[in-house]
Amino acid sequence: EDKVVQSPLSLVVHEGDTVTLNCSYEVTNFRSLLWYKQEKKAPTFLFMLTSSGIEKKSGRLSSILDKKELFSILNITATQTGDSAVYLCAVETYGQNFVFGPGTRLSVLP
Amino acid sequence: DSGVTQTPKHLITATGQRVTLRCSPRSGDLSVYWYQQSLDQGLQFLIQYYNGEERAKGNILERFSAQQFPDLHSELNLSSLELGDSALYFCASSVAGAGTYGYTFGSGTRLTVV
Asked: Are A95 and B48 an interchain contact pair (Cβ–Cβ within 8 Å)?
């Protein structure tokens, strides 16, 4: 059975801290790994990763994939209160199935 | 506004009833995905349609069904509703698969079964 695991499940930091969110997966026919940020409503897309070792970066957020060890990390530097959200990791397979992890709830305190 | 439109935004109905959730994908997107998000189970993939045809099936109950119409909008039908069906139902769309930019979620329909 395809599975995506995220850790930690919950994280509380202060503004300015750097956080690393982890996502590991066990799926057949891996196609891509996606990160989403979910605040109050719909998840919003952050990154899609398909190749190992290539860092994707957007502002203070960056992510990298390791297809050998089957995990990805999402880094957020200099966190702000606006980064408070649930961060979802999802894996797409070639069967066009999508498996989401449980999410990491990040709370950034002022 | 993500471009993916879901209606209604909120729905309250009694057990045993049937409801229909509607989704209009972003312009140009051919794929529509349905997800269920409940507090204890996270985001669960239900089903995907591509250009009118069912493409992939996830953890969708037999009491649930979906279809995608020629104008590419999709409907998710939930019947014989149970209390445990209370959840947020998301629709997402993409051109085909996750493509280069993942896929775009609508703002969801919150279903409450009483």
From this structure: no
Q: What is the SS3 string spanning chain B?
A: CCCCEEECCEEEECCCCCEEEEEECCCCCCEEEEEEEECCCEEEEEEEEECCEEEEECCCCCCEEEEECCCCCEEEEECCCCHHHCEEEEEEEECCCCCCCCCEECCCEEEEEC
- The answer to whether A99 and B98 have CB atoms below 8 angstroms apart is no
Considering only CB atoms, A42 lies closest to which of B48, B56, B108, namely B108
Q: Is the pLDDT of residue B100 over 60?
A: no
A43:B44 CB<8 A? no
Contact A97 B45 (CB under 8 A): yes
Percent of the residues in chain B that have a pLDDT greater than 90, as a whole number: 71
| A contacts of B34 (beta carbons < 8 Å) | none
**pLDDT recorded at residue A25:** 95
